[in-house]
Prior knowledge:
The chain is of the alpha+beta class. It has four helices and four strands, in the order αβββαβαα. It has a four-stranded mixed beta sheet, sandwiched between helices.
Amino acid sequence: MEDFNFGRELRLLTPSHYSRIFNEPARAATPFFTLLAKPNDQAKPRLGLTVAKKRVKKACQRNRIKRLARESFRLNQHTIDNVDIVLMVKSGIDEQSNEELTKQLTKLWRKINERCKPGAPKPPPFKKRPNKSAKSNKQSQ
RNA sequence: GAGUCAGCCAAGAUGAUCGCUGCCUGCAACGAAAAUGCGCAGGGGGAGGAAAGUCCGGGCUCCACAGGGCAGGGUGCCAGCUAACGGCUGGGGGGCGUGAGCCUACGACAAGUGCAGCAGAGAGGAGACCGCCAAUCUUCGGAUUGGUAAGGGUGAAAGGGUGCGGUAAGAGCGCACCGGGCCACUAGCAAUAGUUGGUUGCAAGGUAAACUCCACCCGGAGCAAGACCAAAUAGGGUUCUAUCAUUUUAAAUAAUGAACGCGUGGCCCACGUGAGAACCGGGUAGGUUGCUUGAGCCAUAGAGCGAUUUAUGGCCUAGACGAAUGAUUAUCACUUUCUUCGGAAAGGACAGAACCCGGCUUAUACGGCUGACUCACUC
């Protein structure tokens, strides 16, 4: 029986952890999430959350989204490879229901596994506008 | 019964499964080992009435500080409560409402300065446009001069109101009543009130969330305050050690040169550079602390109209830090809709602690309780 704990070793704890991932990550996205990831040298995946005040105005909505994300990560942790993940959100997410968000998150975990496979195509360079359209095509499939 | 006013309560309940977190207890397995426990197991805790806005007031911390003043900011009927307040309680004045009640920055424009569109003759210790009256002139239409604030007209506002007397016509010009000012008296701690007494013909209208004046209050910054521990890297200080020669000094030492190490270079020459160790202080990442026992909560009794307060007893009730307090689900309760009356479906707000309190303000679904008022009905 696998355990579904979500202890401190499964989280990103310090700003240095985060900044490592922001540097040339693999990306995946859905209409309301953006996910950045990078393989780590741990035996487990690790999760970090970034819910900007700019995107979600109310504190209790931010809390709700974080809790959903943690819960989904906790239940799916054994299907995810050993990567460090930073989950970001987009505007409008606070109007979505719990069910819908959970569905999207599950899809994301699958997607990020493919992107981080060794030998997967190198992610496109980070901050370039044209790539945005390419990404949205992938979302709609 | 309908409508309304005021105050208060609650913020669905009980399970199941999988988690998070800090507290207590334990350590068989885990890890090289140990531990006051990285970790694991068990136990019992884990968001709010507004946790929000950050609008006031305090505690706490650091900095500054003899005392006083200026500047700046705030408060503004009176009394009380309080750690304090711009809060609350009680009282007064004014306004609104049939009423229960509600609203009210409500000190001083008679210290000075300023402001007031349009209309209107005139907007401030005024003013004659129409009108009224008198005198003079007259072509008998009126004109001129003077008096007049009762009437008309303008305006948000025209320098008390009504009546009588009075007068050429009028006028606080005189009188009565009403209103106002001032001084007493009475009630009240006071604000203030008074069918109270006297006096005054009544003068200088509005605006101070206009400058201003008056009275009172205010040092600054904030838990990212502050205190402690402290890697790596770079840099600072002190001490010690460091080859040889010459010169210097009583000596320590200092200077110069060479040698040596390192870098450039295949090597020499050449050029550049100076080492090592120990300790000290500052201090970054990171960690610990501040951090939850407090103007605390509950009950009972006493004081007070009340805010509040006193005594006794009991209780400990979140302390996170890339930031926990959750997710899924079952049953019951609540509301709405549909109904074949068996049930079925949908819904549950506002919103998330971050050093802590006291207030204010704003947002709130479904509900519950208490008191009061108005109208209708019954007796």
